[in-house]
Amino acid sequence: MDARALASPSSQRFRDRAISPDGVIQLTLNHPPPVPEIFNTMVFKALNRVLAESLPAELMATHRWMGTDHERQQGALFVGRRLGVVPDRNRIIVTHSTQAALQVLLPGIVGNRRPLAIERLSYSPVRSFAARYGISVVDVSIDGDGLNPEAFREICHRKRPIALYLVSTYQNPTTVTMSLGRRQQIAEIARRYQVRLIEDDIYSLLTESPLPPISSLAPELSWYLLGTAKSLSAGLRLAFVVAPDVAEATRVFWPGLPATYWMASPISAALMAELVSNGGDLAILAAVKDELAARHRLVVSGLKGKPLASDPGCLHVWIPLKGASSNEIAAALLEAGVQVAVSASYAGDGWAPPQAIRISIGNPEKRSVLEKAMSIVCRALP
Ligand SMILES: Cc1ncc(COP(=O)(O)O)c(C=O)c1O
Fold first, then answer.
1. Which domains, from first to last, does the chain contain?
2. Which of 201, 215, 261, 286 could pair with 224 in a Cys bridge, judged by C-beta atoms 3.0 to 4.6 Å apart?
3. 169 lines ligand 1 (CB under 6 A)
4. pLDDT digit string (tens) for 241-251?
5. CA of 28 to the centre of ligand 1 (A)
């Protein structure tokens, strides 16, 4: 197949995936921008190899629980690029997604005797999952450099959380990447109070200047989660989990676990293992990063100097709204044909967050759709 064929959709589809049937441009979903040419090339190559090595009936006969030895070894190499060392493959669990892994980890390591600490503005499903499992949540305040260490220390002292869930690179929704100093402080406090860390590093593969995960500073306390859905493709959705040790990996993710269907689909797990071993993942990542950087330039010029928090590798942009209501701006934008997320949806009850909106810039397939949305957003901002 030639490169042009690889870049164009095979089905008769005319509408950009970000445009809803009623014509609204949806900038709420944080999907990586599509890079079809390189993605198709790399995935065709990897799938051919996977299918040459094992017959479909063998590959798909059953799920493989925590992953085959080979998949866990490739997963160890994949997370090892972030952690600085390749962990023992028996500490790796290949899961369906970060969300699925969290639904095992929350009841498995937090339980309902002591609370879970989270950043005051945080990835919202974590609050819903905690509520589902009867887990109380305690908010830790954040500042321009991420989770506030003094607030964390105080919470550890007063509330004795058993674990802290956090996103240290390109925090959702604020876009903040914690400095190395902050990471070291958080690790030190977690160690002092024996708080387990659930570090969701899903956006970290997109940055040009990666910092070590906190999990690499306190591995004995950490559950490290590295998902693929935000960096490679939303549909190639897997999350590699690194447990603090082999015994914990086996205890928490034991095969008979009566929980959500957290196991990875065999074809995705085998495909990802092959992409890691032949470098296809790195080629796709490089293309995604280039496309994202181009989209950031477009957003910055489209917003004509309005204040915003962003970074060329971040899938979302955070727009503070001084003196304006985020609900009102979001409603006006929806009326004008653009859907965005508001700050309140990332906060718990009982605290009114600063007014802001979050815009996801990877969802539109075409830059022209994002460009159009940005001109609408710019007009609606104060
Ligand atoms: C911080 C964070 N973690 C996890 C996810 C979802 O990950 P997955 O698709 O692997 O469940 C998202 C999606 O928006 C996210 O923002």
1. 3-43+281-380 (3.90.1150.10), 62-277 (3.40.640.10)
2. 215
3. no
4. 999 999 999 99
5. 13
